[in-house]
Amino acid sequence: MINTTNDPSTPPTQRSIGELVASIKDELVGVVHTEVDIAKKEFTSLGTKAGVIAACAAVVLFLLLSAWVMLLFAAASGLQALGLPAWASFLIVAGVFLLLAAIAGLIAYSFVKKLKAPEVTIETAKGAMTAVQGKRHTAPVSYDDTFEELYGKQVSARTASTPTPGAKDEKAPTEDERVGSVRA
């Protein structure tokens, strides 16, 4: 007998396994829906806060940019007060910032040249994709590879019947023996 309620005072009832599986499925769907609703509420709250933060950040950036422009005019006016013409003072300020931009660009370019693809991550992703697709990743094996090269074990029956590629057969005559037999 199975108690289908959480109340210990109720007597247990008889239910089939199919009914139990169906009730578990229904309860699981209910739990998932509840979790999705909670996540929606949390993300809505987060989205609202992120929107306020983004708006405030945009206002701050606009004000900082405006102040920056005013500082640039002040610098040019200061150079003009030193006796330079207005065009020369603005040109000097612009030239300084072009020089700073060029230096920053060279630094960024040196970092870009050092960037490499995330090889381990790419291999892991490829492995995950093959696993999801149901394919097995096996290393290619050449038929020229010997058992010893693959498994590190020497098998006498295999070496006797099939010679290792590149290995000399003990019964075959060497070059000196063949030349010597031709002369004789």
Characteristic terms for this protein:
184 residues, mainly alpha, 70% helix, flat
Describe the structure.
By secondary structure, this protein is an all-alpha fold. Helix content is 70%, strand content 0%. It has helices at residues 17-81, 86-114, 119-132, 147-151, 156-161, 175-183. The chain is flat and about 100 Å long.
Short description:
The chain has 184 residues and is mainly alpha-helical. The chain is 70% helix and 0% strand. 1% of the residues are buried.
Radius of gyration: 40 Å
State the major sheet: none
- Helical content band: 55-70%
Number of helices: 6
The low-confidence parts are none
State mean pLDDT (0 to 100 scale): 78
Overall geometry: flat
**Approximately how much beta-strand content do the residues carry?**
under 5%
Distance between the ends: 101 Å
Number of strands: 0
Succession of helices and strands: HHHHHH
Structural classification: mainly alpha
Topology:
Blueprint: H1 17-81, H2 86-114, H3 119-132, H4 147-151, H5 156-161, H6 175-183
Helix pairs in contact: 1-2
